[in-house]
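User: Can you recover a sequence for this backbone? Please restate the input before giving your answer.

Assistant: Of course. Working from this structure:
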């Protein structure tokens, strides 16, 4: 089984991934691919660079670039795969065309920002205003090579709302797994 994960920044995608890894899923991360490319280009590792590099890779290699790599990884490695951070409609379409499920994770913006600040990754050191601005850049786009969270979330087979406890989130994951 392949599950693609999409969702808003700080919503809990990583928490869902860690939970599924504990259930035996193998993790395939877009972020890792993009950070490696950012470093190759000598850019600062931040959300702006992540967006620019991800869009550039999709422009050069097609709107389903990351999803194609995820599907290949799944076929090469077998078993259950969780592909984290589906951001473009082309990626979502490619996953679904290859039999994958697509799950979205969302939460209240203030809650998400508090989580982002706490995790202190190099791409998350931003003000709340910058956090919201970044989200607007990723929210909606007609260019298939660019982020379109609104479009991808609309394609989701399951939407997990993470405004409560981890246990509440994990109950939603278990419910989604039963319908997968």
């Amino acid at each position: 089984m392949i599950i693609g994960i999409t969702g808003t920044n700080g919503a809990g995608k990583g928490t869902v991934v860690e939970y599924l890894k504990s259930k035996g899923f193998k993790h395939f991360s877009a972020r890792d691919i993009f950070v490696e490319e950012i470093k190759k280009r000598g850019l600062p590792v931040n959300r702006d660079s992540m967006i620019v590099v991800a869009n550039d890779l999709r422009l050069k290699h097609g709107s389903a670039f990351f999803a194609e790599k995820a599907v290949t990884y799944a076929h090469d490695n077998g078993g259950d795969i969780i592909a984290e951070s589906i951001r473009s409609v082309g990626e979502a379409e490619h996953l679904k065309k290859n039999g994958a499920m697509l799950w979205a994770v969302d939460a209240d913006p203030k809650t998400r920002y508090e989580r982002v600040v706490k995790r202190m990754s190099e791409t998350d050191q931003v003000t709340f205003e910058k956090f919201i601005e970044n989200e607007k850049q990723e929210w909606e786009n007609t260019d298939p090579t660019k982020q379109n969270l609104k479009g991808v979330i609309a394609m989701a087979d399951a939407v997990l709302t993470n405004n409560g406890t981890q246990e509440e989130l994990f109950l939603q994951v278990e419910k989604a797994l039963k319908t997968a």
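That completes the design. The beta strands are 2-7, 26-29, 81-84, 101-106, 158-161.
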